Amino acid sequence: MRFSTLKLAIGAATATALTLGTIAGAAAQKSGGTLNFVVGSKIPSYDAHVETTFGMIHPIAPFYSLLIRVNPDAPATNDFVCDVCEGDVDKGADGGKLFTFKIRKGLKFHNGAPLNANDVVASYNKIIFPPKGVASSRKSFYRMVESVAATDDHTVVFKLKFPSGAFIPALASPFNFIYSKADLEKNGLTWHKTNINGSGPFVFVEHQPGAFVSGKKFAGYHHKGRPYLDGFRAIAAPKMAARVQAIEGDRASIEFRGFPPKQRDALVKVLGDKITVQESDWNCVLMATPNQKKKPFDDARVRRALSLSIDRWGGSKYLSKIAIVKTVGGVVFPGHPLAATEAELTKIAGYGKDLKANRAEARRLLKEAGQENLSLVLNNRAVDQPYKVVGTWLLDQYKKIGIKATQQVNPSSVFYDILRKKQDFDVSIDFNCQSVINPIADVSKFLPGGGANYSGSKDKKLVEMYDALLRAPTEAEQRKLVRQYEKRVLDTEATHAITLWWYKINPHRSYVKGWKIAPSHYLGQQLDQVWLDK
Amino acid sequence: MLQYVLKRLLLMIPTILGAAFIIFFILRVVPGDVCELKLGGDGGHYDPVQVEICQKNLGIDRPVYEQFGKFVVGIFTFDYGNSMDTGKPVTHEIGLRFQLSLQIAIMATLVTIIIAIPLGTISAVYQNSWIDYIVRTVSIAGIALPSFWLGILLLLFLLNFSDWMWGIRWSPPLIYKPIWEDPYHNVSQLIWPAVATGYRYSAVATRMTRSSMLEVLREDYVRTARAKGLLEKLIINRHALKNALLPVVTVIGIEFAFLMGGLVVTEQVFNLNGLGQLLVHSVTGKDYTMTQAIVMIIVLVFVFTNFMVDILYAWLDPRIRYS
């Protein structure tokens, strides 16, 4: 479990910072200025332990600290560094079942109250062991945790039930804001939904719902010399056209989620060297999930045929010109040491580079299953990028093997209702979109009974495989088990057909420095490293 | 007159109740709920147990009749509850947007009144002249052009024109500031949507003024006034225009009410934090309490505006109140 040394190839291989202007680097950081950025989603509440959206993370994360975080200066790696703790991130004792963190001394919340180990423990207890009726969206990430305790005012100890490679990445989730124990005890566990008292680089100033959130520099911030900015303003702009125009007109300097290729090209065309583009693979993937509760999708041959029809390598080349998808990959984020190599991928059904052979095999399987005249309806979400684009592409792929496929594009609420509750779809667009790259946790998406698998699969063998993976102590062992798991999900059982992994494109004003693209739109958002070269 | 006003006031009650009933049940026909979207809408981790907790906390799991009863009581006690999405009081959320929407509606209405009534009148008086043809062409173009599209063109024009003129690409401010706080900022943000919507709005009103004026100018009493040797200016302004304004007032009134919540797309184009945008968010986010409250406010604005139009009718045409 070499967490801090997992210098993922992701960084080098895929987080290519395509510099069309100049990128922050050698220049000395300048202090001052206000960063204006646009956010395409709204803030449901301020409580990160409950919420799941970047609409909350982007404007609110700068107000809070974390115990550990993905290195904001190298977010394309899984290099975990201390935030309120000090030194290196613990590699674990007692066979990987005991993790100790020393908390910095002299930390303060924005209201002046001291921050110590008890606040960290109270926050993690709220996340991992919430009382009945209190929501905690990522509670299930911490199934391996037995207890969290403070042995003194500056030491936090996590005791695990079993060692797990998924623990440290889960601990570094950008949603794990450190709250004040006193606030939780005095005001209750839901107080943070509507109130902010953090210890992050910026102090909350104002929130005008639907309009903006603003913050000013926290003089007592624990990372010396940071933040560089005097403040920031997160401006709500739900429509992409408005966000693009905001950057074009310099009303905002950056949008952290990402734009499609067309918008990137438009900005580069009009702004030239005033715009810098950073690009990276994205820890989000769309897949097509056949419904095993419905015939003929209960037949693995039919499901394999669906996957075999997809031209992933061709899609990567052409679809990436119009949509925010690009990389061919398996169940693990491409470029991660646990991800399949190209050679390994091509052995999986539907990933082979001989498209003709793939489709001939697909037709043969359909014939064998008596489904030569198969027709299906694809349940899709009425969101342009990349859902509708990928959905339309999939229809074309299915037609290539003689399937009569149509698409039903539904508003989000209806789409989710069909996917999760009614489960009466033929094939549905499905997705897995995570923050910290944590393959062992992320692949639980495919787990029958795991809460997020909508295929109707009851594959007990897969559950056994996952259980072994969760407990695998070494990276080599984890890798071997992931390959078996992947083969079962994508090939043998073909419960899900992964399309293409998303591709993140962040054009921003060239004077914005210090912000480095991460493989997730949830990461690197505390903004303490950002400065303006004006 | 008092009896007339009272009658109109009483007619408002069934309209409001009917609207409340329809909006409440239509919202619940569409599947899905706010918790599903909030806790799993981004494609990230989704935990059904957490969704159940959320539904329980918001009362979505309660029987529909119970929720409806609460809503109706809320209408009469002016308690619309908290937004299911943000947890903040609905009245607070609406209040923040109301000011902006009201200002655009007023600005667009002013643009309309200033443009439409004189142009419509001139067009009618000089029927089939070159002035009439120009006014008709411009007004037909206004009706044909969707205001959001005109808005997009305006924004593109501003970006490119400022680049050409000063080498800086300028776009209107994104954040709203009240006019008394920063008049320049306020006007430079809102003048563009007001022009974009006001153009369409004035085009409709111009056409209405013109046709109404043409009709009135052919009336016997106008001919009589002319036979009596009254000045043409006096005939137009005092006798013809006042009567011709009846349908124009109706159009302006309905359009004003529409602008309060109906500028959905234009608000998105200009990134305005108005009632229209809030309505769209609440509908797509399945925020029942917020959607119900906004729709009820729009209904109230419509009902009240119609009431005011009825009163104006009675003032403009005494026959209405006497009947």
What does this entry look like structurally?
- The complex is a heterodimer of chains A (534) and B (323).
- Chain A has 534 residues and is α+β, with helices and mostly antiparallel strands.
- Chain A has helices at 9-14, 54-60, 117-128, 167-171, 181-187, 240-248, 261-271, 300-308, 312-318, 342-345, 355-368, 384-399, 412-422, 439-442, 460-471, 475-492; strands at residues 34-39, 68-70, 80-82, 98-102, 145-152, 155-160, 202-208, 212-217, 231-236, 254-255, 275-290, 325-327, 375-381, 404-410, 427-433, 497-509, 512-513, 531-532.
- Chain A folds into two domains: 31-253 and 511-532, Periplasmic binding protein-like II (D-Maltodextrin-Binding Protein, domain 2), CATH 3.40.190.10; 281-503, Dipeptide-binding Protein, Domain 3 (Dipeptide-binding Protein, domain 3).
- The longest helix of chain A has 18 residues, at 475-492.
- Chain B is mainly alpha-helical.
- Chain B has one domain: Orthogonal Bundle (MetI-like fold), CATH 1.10.3720.
- Chain B contains 14 helices and no strands.
- In chain B, helix 12 (275-284) runs antiparallel to helix 13.
- Chain B starts with a helix and ends with a helix.
- The interface between A and B is large, with 61 and 55 residues.
Question: What keywords describe this structure?
Answer:
heterodimer, A: 534 residues, alpha+beta, Dipeptide-binding Protein, domain 3, 2 domains, six-stranded mixed beta sheet, five-stranded mixed beta sheet, 16 helices, 28% helix, globular, disordered N terminus, B: mainly alpha, MetI-like fold, 14 helices, 78% helix, 0% strand
CATH structural architecture of the largest domain in chain A:
3-Layer(aba) Sandwich
Fourth CATH level, the homologous superfamily of the largest domain in chain A? Periplasmic binding protein-like II
Fraction of residues in β-strands of chain A? 15-25%
Structural class of chain A: alpha+beta
Contiguous low-pLDDT stretches of chain B (5 residues minimum) are none
Question: Given the C-alpha coordinates, what overall shape of chain B results?
Answer: flat
The helix content of chain A is 25-40%
The biggest beta sheet of chain A reads: 6 strands, mixed
Distance between the termini of chain B: 10 Å
Tell me the domain tally of chain B: 1
What is the overall pLDDT average of chain B? 87
Strand arrangement, major sheet of chain A: 12-16-11-15-13-14
Oligomer: heterodimer
Q: How many beta strands in the DSSP annotation of chain A?
A: 18
Structural class of chain B: mainly alpha
CATH homologous superfamily annotation of chain B: MetI-like
CATH class placement of chain B: Mainly Alpha
- Give the rounded overall mean pLDDT of chain A: 91
CATH architecture of chain B: Orthogonal Bundle
As a whole number of angstroms, the C-alpha radius of gyration of chain A is 23 Å
Shape of chain A: globular
